[in-house]
Amino acid sequence: MTPIYYTSAILQKIKTILKIRFISNKSCLLIVCSLSILFYSCNNKAETKSKIDSPITELSIYNLPSKWTDQNGKNLEMKDLKGKVLVMVMIYTSCKAACPRLVADMRNIEQRIPEKIKDNVQFVMVSIDPEVDTPQRLKAFAIENKMDGDQWLFLRSTEENTREFAAVLAVNYKKIAPLDFSHSNIISVFNAEGELAYQQEGLGVNSDQTINKISEEAQKLN
Q1: How far, in Å, CA of 187 to CA of 183, rounded?
Q2: For the whole model, what pTM was predicted?
Q3: Less crowded by CB within 10 Å, the N or C end of the chain?
Protein backbone atom coordinates (compact mmCIF):
# COMPACT_ATOMS: atom_id res chain seq x y z
CA MET A 1 0.00 0.00 0.00
CA THR A 2 1.29 3.41 -0.97
CA PRO A 3 1.87 5.58 2.09
CA ILE A 4 -0.31 8.67 2.40
CA TYR A 5 1.45 11.95 3.09
CA TYR A 6 -0.39 14.91 4.58
CA THR A 7 0.55 18.54 4.42
CA SER A 8 0.71 20.45 7.68
CA ALA A 9 -2.51 22.30 6.75
CA ILE A 10 -4.41 19.04 6.25
CA LEU A 11 -3.06 17.61 9.51
CA GLN A 12 -4.21 20.69 11.39
CA LYS A 13 -7.67 20.38 9.84
CA ILE A 14 -7.90 16.71 10.89
CA LYS A 15 -6.87 17.60 14.42
CA THR A 16 -9.55 20.30 14.51
CA ILE A 17 -12.23 17.86 13.32
CA LEU A 18 -11.18 15.27 15.88
CA LYS A 19 -11.22 17.91 18.63
CA ILE A 20 -14.74 18.98 17.63
CA ARG A 21 -15.90 15.36 17.65
CA PHE A 22 -14.36 14.84 21.07
CA ILE A 23 -16.10 17.93 22.44
CA SER A 24 -19.35 16.86 20.77
CA ASN A 25 -19.15 13.38 22.28
CA LYS A 26 -18.31 14.86 25.69
CA SER A 27 -21.24 17.26 25.41
CA CYS A 28 -23.57 14.41 24.50
CA LEU A 29 -22.38 12.50 27.53
CA LEU A 30 -23.00 15.51 29.75
CA ILE A 31 -26.48 15.95 28.27
CA VAL A 32 -27.31 12.28 28.84
CA CYS A 33 -26.07 12.48 32.45
CA SER A 34 -28.03 15.68 33.06
CA LEU A 35 -31.21 14.14 31.67
CA SER A 36 -30.68 11.05 33.80
CA ILE A 37 -30.29 13.16 36.94
CA LEU A 38 -33.34 15.23 35.99
CA PHE A 39 -35.40 12.10 35.36
CA TYR A 40 -34.32 10.62 38.70
CA SER A 41 -35.11 13.89 40.48
CA CYS A 42 -38.55 14.14 38.89
CA ASN A 43 -39.23 10.47 39.57
CA ASN A 44 -38.10 10.85 43.18
CA LYS A 45 -40.31 13.93 43.64
CA ALA A 46 -43.23 12.05 42.09
CA GLU A 47 -42.75 9.17 44.52
CA THR A 48 -42.60 11.57 47.49
CA LYS A 49 -45.72 13.38 46.26
CA SER A 50 -47.46 10.03 45.86
CA LYS A 51 -46.69 9.18 49.47
CA ILE A 52 -47.98 12.56 50.66
CA ASP A 53 -51.16 12.22 48.57
CA SER A 54 -51.82 8.62 49.64
CA PRO A 55 -55.15 7.95 51.42
CA ILE A 56 -55.27 8.40 55.20
CA THR A 57 -55.70 5.08 57.00
CA GLU A 58 -58.13 4.48 59.85
CA LEU A 59 -55.27 4.37 62.37
CA SER A 60 -53.79 7.71 61.34
CA ILE A 61 -53.76 10.77 63.60
CA TYR A 62 -54.42 12.77 60.44
CA ASN A 63 -58.08 11.82 60.84
CA LEU A 64 -58.33 14.06 63.89
CA PRO A 65 -60.34 17.19 63.04
CA SER A 66 -58.86 19.28 65.86
CA LYS A 67 -57.34 22.70 65.14
CA TRP A 68 -53.94 23.68 66.53
CA THR A 69 -51.75 26.77 66.72
CA ASP A 70 -47.95 26.67 66.51
CA GLN A 71 -45.31 28.85 68.16
CA ASN A 72 -45.51 31.33 65.27
CA GLY A 73 -49.26 31.79 65.61
CA LYS A 74 -50.01 29.70 62.53
CA ASN A 75 -53.20 27.62 62.60
CA LEU A 76 -53.04 24.04 61.35
CA GLU A 77 -54.52 20.54 61.56
CA MET A 78 -52.66 17.30 62.16
CA LYS A 79 -53.09 16.33 58.50
CA ASP A 80 -50.96 19.35 57.56
CA LEU A 81 -47.98 17.46 59.00
CA LYS A 82 -48.45 14.55 56.62
CA GLY A 83 -45.40 13.42 54.68
CA LYS A 84 -42.84 13.44 57.48
CA VAL A 85 -41.96 11.13 60.34
CA LEU A 86 -43.27 12.75 63.53
CA VAL A 87 -41.55 12.49 66.89
CA MET A 88 -43.98 13.78 69.50
CA VAL A 89 -44.01 14.50 73.21
CA MET A 90 -46.50 16.26 75.49
CA ILE A 91 -45.04 18.81 77.91
CA TYR A 92 -45.81 22.21 79.47
CA THR A 93 -43.39 25.11 79.58
CA SER A 94 -43.70 25.96 83.29
CA CYS A 95 -42.75 22.40 84.29
CA LYS A 96 -39.68 22.20 86.52
CA ALA A 97 -39.46 18.43 87.02
CA ALA A 98 -40.01 15.89 84.24
CA CYS A 99 -40.40 18.19 81.22
CA PRO A 100 -36.82 19.52 81.18
CA ARG A 101 -35.66 15.91 81.04
CA LEU A 102 -38.10 15.12 78.21
CA VAL A 103 -36.87 18.19 76.33
CA ALA A 104 -33.28 17.00 76.79
CA ASP A 105 -34.25 13.53 75.54
CA MET A 106 -35.86 15.03 72.43
CA ARG A 107 -32.81 17.16 71.72
CA ASN A 108 -30.55 14.14 72.15
CA ILE A 109 -32.65 12.12 69.70
CA GLU A 110 -32.66 14.98 67.17
CA GLN A 111 -28.88 15.32 67.35
CA ARG A 112 -28.37 11.61 66.71
CA ILE A 113 -30.55 11.38 63.61
CA PRO A 114 -28.38 10.95 60.46
CA GLU A 115 -28.04 14.20 58.50
CA LYS A 116 -29.23 12.62 55.23
CA ILE A 117 -32.70 11.95 56.65
CA LYS A 118 -33.17 14.89 59.03
CA ASP A 119 -35.33 16.76 56.53
CA ASN A 120 -37.80 13.87 56.69
CA VAL A 121 -38.36 14.20 60.44
CA GLN A 122 -40.45 16.71 62.41
CA PHE A 123 -40.11 17.03 66.18
CA VAL A 124 -43.37 18.11 67.79
CA MET A 125 -43.88 19.38 71.34
CA VAL A 126 -47.56 19.46 72.33
CA SER A 127 -48.58 21.55 75.34
CA ILE A 128 -50.85 20.06 78.01
CA ASP A 129 -51.34 23.55 79.47
CA PRO A 130 -52.82 25.64 76.63
CA GLU A 131 -54.06 28.32 79.02
CA VAL A 132 -50.49 29.31 79.96
CA ASP A 133 -48.69 28.13 76.83
CA THR A 134 -49.72 30.80 74.36
CA PRO A 135 -47.95 30.95 70.99
CA GLN A 136 -45.78 33.74 72.37
CA ARG A 137 -44.79 31.64 75.38
CA LEU A 138 -44.07 28.61 73.18
CA LYS A 139 -41.91 30.77 70.89
CA ALA A 140 -39.93 32.10 73.86
CA PHE A 141 -39.53 28.57 75.23
CA ALA A 142 -38.25 27.32 71.86
CA ILE A 143 -35.65 30.10 71.73
CA GLU A 144 -34.61 29.57 75.36
CA ASN A 145 -33.99 25.89 74.69
CA LYS A 146 -32.30 26.41 71.30
CA MET A 147 -35.15 24.59 69.58
CA ASP A 148 -36.17 27.32 67.15
CA GLY A 149 -35.07 25.55 63.96
CA ASP A 150 -37.54 24.37 61.32
CA GLN A 151 -37.33 20.81 62.63
CA TRP A 152 -39.04 21.89 65.88
CA LEU A 153 -42.78 22.49 66.12
CA PHE A 154 -44.63 23.57 69.27
CA LEU A 155 -48.40 23.16 69.35
CA ARG A 156 -51.30 24.19 71.55
CA SER A 157 -55.08 23.81 71.21
CA THR A 158 -58.21 23.82 73.35
CA GLU A 159 -58.41 21.75 76.53
CA GLU A 160 -60.84 19.37 74.80
CA ASN A 161 -58.57 18.82 71.80
CA THR A 162 -55.56 18.38 74.05
CA ARG A 163 -57.33 15.72 76.09
CA GLU A 164 -58.39 13.89 72.95
CA PHE A 165 -54.87 13.94 71.56
CA ALA A 166 -53.38 12.78 74.87
CA ALA A 167 -55.73 9.78 74.78
CA VAL A 168 -54.45 8.88 71.31
CA LEU A 169 -50.86 8.92 72.62
CA ALA A 170 -51.86 7.08 75.83
CA VAL A 171 -50.57 10.06 77.80
CA ASN A 172 -52.25 10.69 81.14
CA TYR A 173 -52.04 14.08 82.81
CA LYS A 174 -53.72 15.81 85.71
CA LYS A 175 -53.55 19.33 87.08
CA ILE A 176 -52.41 19.16 90.69
CA ALA A 177 -51.67 22.87 91.26
CA PRO A 178 -52.18 26.15 89.35
CA LEU A 179 -48.91 25.68 87.44
CA ASP A 180 -48.21 22.03 88.04
CA PHE A 181 -49.29 18.80 86.34
CA SER A 182 -48.58 15.14 86.85
CA HIS A 183 -48.20 13.44 83.48
CA SER A 184 -46.88 10.46 81.54
CA ASN A 185 -43.40 10.64 80.07
CA ILE A 186 -43.80 9.18 76.60
CA ILE A 187 -42.10 10.03 73.31
CA SER A 188 -44.10 8.76 70.33
CA VAL A 189 -42.93 8.09 66.77
CA PHE A 190 -45.43 8.26 63.91
CA ASN A 191 -44.69 7.21 60.34
CA ALA A 192 -45.34 9.48 57.36
CA GLU A 193 -48.95 8.22 57.19
CA GLY A 194 -49.57 9.32 60.78
CA GLU A 195 -49.68 5.81 62.22
CA LEU A 196 -48.08 5.13 65.58
CA ALA A 197 -44.83 3.23 64.94
CA TYR A 198 -43.05 3.25 68.30
CA GLN A 199 -43.15 4.68 71.82
CA GLN A 200 -40.38 5.37 74.30
CA GLU A 201 -41.45 5.62 77.93
CA GLY A 202 -39.47 7.04 80.82
CA LEU A 203 -36.92 9.76 81.46
CA GLY A 204 -33.31 9.57 80.39
CA VAL A 205 -33.75 6.07 78.99
CA ASN A 206 -31.68 4.55 76.18
CA SER A 207 -33.00 5.98 72.90
CA ASP A 208 -31.28 3.57 70.49
CA GLN A 209 -34.47 1.74 69.51
CA THR A 210 -36.33 5.03 69.12
CA ILE A 211 -33.63 6.41 66.82
CA ASN A 212 -33.52 3.18 64.83
CA LYS A 213 -37.27 3.33 64.27
CA ILE A 214 -37.19 7.00 63.27
CA SER A 215 -34.35 6.28 60.83
CA GLU A 216 -36.13 3.25 59.41
CA GLU A 217 -39.30 5.23 58.71
CA ALA A 218 -37.47 8.34 57.48
CA GLN A 219 -35.34 6.37 55.00
CA LYS A 220 -38.53 5.23 53.28
CA LEU A 221 -39.08 8.84 52.23
CA ASN A 222 -35.73 9.21 50.43
Answers
A1: 12
A2: 0.76
A3: N
